[in-house]
Design goal:
With 282 residues, this protein is an alpha/beta fold. The chain is 39% helix and 20% strand. It contains eleven helices and nine strands. The strands form two sheets. It has a six-stranded parallel β-sheet, sandwiched between helices. The N and C termini lie far apart (44 Å). The mean pLDDT is 97.
Length: 282
């Protein structure tokens, strides 16, 4: 596995592979990799001849009081995991490489898609996401890029951006990867102490119970939301950011559960703000 730090070296390395007809898969990450990330890498390896992964903790998607400086890092461990899975290039740039002095161009996906869910409580977040992903796509020029469905809103925003800007690549969403007890894998899970880790299971449990209630015939979104809130509230120190049921494609809020829906939640459990979701066709 080559480790590349500069944009120019990355471009040249990928061009060399594309010249001989190889397809390129791309897995962008912020590092501190877990099995969820590795499932993206495995999918990319299966679908493509050549795989590029990136590690970059993007400052423009973090808010003023968020955990940029404390975001967990384990470069050596990440390198080993990526190499074991057969990644061909790891792109590991500095902030200065990605945002050089005088940088002043940003990408925004406007409208409801970025104004709900995480977008309403993290202003500017998706502007930062869209900007860095656009830059990475321009650098790597992949045939396919892989994103985890745990960040469902992010996937929708990126899919919309790729479509609107006529980008020549395919976005491949991959299923949420969960721990054996159901907790959605996240780099931020490392912030949880033993009690918080156990209590955080109310997130996935509330979603699984909501699914059962819907499959039993309940179609009122407000009733499902009430049930989720009641379940999460059994952890008295959990702070709910949002519990929403939206159309899975447009992210518009819905009153009646029908069609392709997304149940999305964000909850602060101790220090970390955790997100989880469940997509369901009704």
């Amino acid at each position: 596995m080559k480790i590349i730090h500069s944009v120019e070296a990355l471009r040249q390395a990928v061009k060399t592979e594309k010249k001989v007809g190889k397809s390129v898969g791309f897995v962008p990450t912020m590092g501190f990799l877990h099995e969820g990330h590795m499932s993206l890498v495995k999918a990319a390896k299966k679908d493509n001849d050549f795989v590029v992964a990136s590690i970059f903790v993007n400052p423009t998607q973090f808010g003023e009081n968020e955990d940029l400086d404390a975001y967990p890092k384990d470069l050596e461990g990440d390198q080993n995991k990526l190499e074991q899975e057969g990644v061909d290039i790891l792109f590991y740039p500095t902030v200065e490489e990605m945002y050089p002095k005088g940088y002043s161009t940003y990408v925004s996906v406007e409208g409801d898609m970025t104004g709900v869910l995480c977008g309403s409580s993290r202003p500017g977040h998706f502007r930062g996401v869209a900007t860095i992903v656009t830059k990475l796509f321009n650098m790597v020029a992949p045939d396919r890029a892989y994103f985890g469905q745990k960040d469902a809103q992010q996937v929708s925003v990126i899919e919309r951006m790729v479509k609107d800007l006529n980008m020549d690549l395919e976005i491949i969403p991959c299923p949420i990867h969960r721990e054996a007890d159901g907790l959605a894998m996240s780099s931020r899970n490392t912030y949880l102490n033993e009690k918080e880790r156990k209590d955080a299971l109310v997130l996935s449990q509330s979603l699984f119970e909501a699914k059962e209630t819907i499959l039993s015939g309940e179609r009122r979104a407000n009733k499902i939301i009430e049930g989720i809130i009641d379940k999460i509230s059994t952890v008295d120190y959990a702070i709910i950011d949002y519990v929403e049921i939206v159309d899975a494609l447009t992210l518009h809020k819905i009153d009646e559960i029908k069609g392709d829906i997304l149940i999305a939640i964000a909850v602060k459990v101790g220090k970390p703000r955790l997100i989880d979701n469940l997509r369901l066709e009704v």
